[in-house]
Amino acid sequence: MTVVVSRGGSVDVTVADSGTGQPCLLLHGGAGPASVAGFAARLDGRVLVPTHPGFDGTPRPAWLDSVRGLAEVYAALLEELGLDDVIVIGNSVGGWIAAELALAGSARIGRTILVDAVGIVVDGHPVADIFGLDLGQIAELSYHDPEPYRIDPTTFTDAQRAALAANRATLRTYAGDMTDGTLRGRLAAIATPTLVVWGDSDGICDPDYGRAYAAAIPGARFELLADTGHVPQIESPDALLKVIAG
User: Fold this and answer.
1) Gap between the terminal Cα atoms of the chain
2) Residue 141 DSSP symbol
3) C-beta separation of 27 from 96 below 8 A
4) What are the pLDDT digits (tens) for 152-206?
5) How far apart are CA 171 and CA 65, in angstroms?
6) Cα distance between residue 152 and residue 96, in whole Å
7) How far apart are CA 206 and CA 87, in angstroms?
8) Beta carbons of 143 and 231 less than 8 angstroms apart
9) What DSSP element (H or E) covers 79?
10) Helices then strands (H, E): number in the chain?
């Protein structure tokens, strides 16, 4: 779809759109749309999974270079589609985008669910510098049990290596060091009901970071998932679904 953002212009957004009923906007993290595709298939209602422009070879206009910019794009997308009472679920950087989307104050959003979101600064609890890590090291931090999820980069084709590098470059363009020093203070303006879900074994941003996230949002509820890392939708989808349903 092509959406128009007032401060930048038009943006082409690739969106997987399936199901019927209450709409859900599911926002992926730095691992790309594949990291939420399986979970999307298990959600009830109409589920929209956009690919952040620049990921997986999709076009990204030069002016679109921040998480707040992405939130503006998705606010415009909801307007274009005319959706109401949307549940916004975001993992990792997708959670940061979801928080910025909630701050934008769109009347089309009914609830926000942040799953191991990054974006804030918490003293003593830094977000891991994933750009300095290889895939094996990232897996160690991302999963309670990384063994089933390890990827051998030596098996990659040249095209796969190029795609991975391009996704990392796009993530860095949007998220920088994965934090915004102003975000934590701004979260107090979120008015939509918010659930913050965290894996107890998250090594990217630990549970105390998640508790700080929830504490900064008025009325937010915090839920900790046992034996789970940074991507619950992959490692513990049943537990995540149960918490969301609750």
Assistant:
1) 33
2) H
3) no
4) 888 999 999 999 999 999 999 999 999 999 999 999 999 999 999 999 999 999 9
5) 9
6) 29
7) 25
8) yes
9) helix 67-81
10) 9, 9
Distance CA 229, CA 203 (A): 7
pLDDT tens-digit series, residues 87-103: 999 999 999 999 999 99
> For residue 87, what are its two tokens?
């549940």
Distance CA 100, CA 181 (A): 13
Residue count of the chain, please give it.
246
Distance between CA 151 and CA 128 in Å, rounded? 19
Q: Which residues contact 37 (CB under 8 A, 6 or more apart)?
A: 16, 49
Instruction: Report the share of the chain in percent with pLDDT over 90.
Output: 92
Strands 46-51 and 86-91: unpaired
Token pair in block for residue 54: 């620049």
Number of other CB atoms surrounding residue 129 within 10 Å: 10
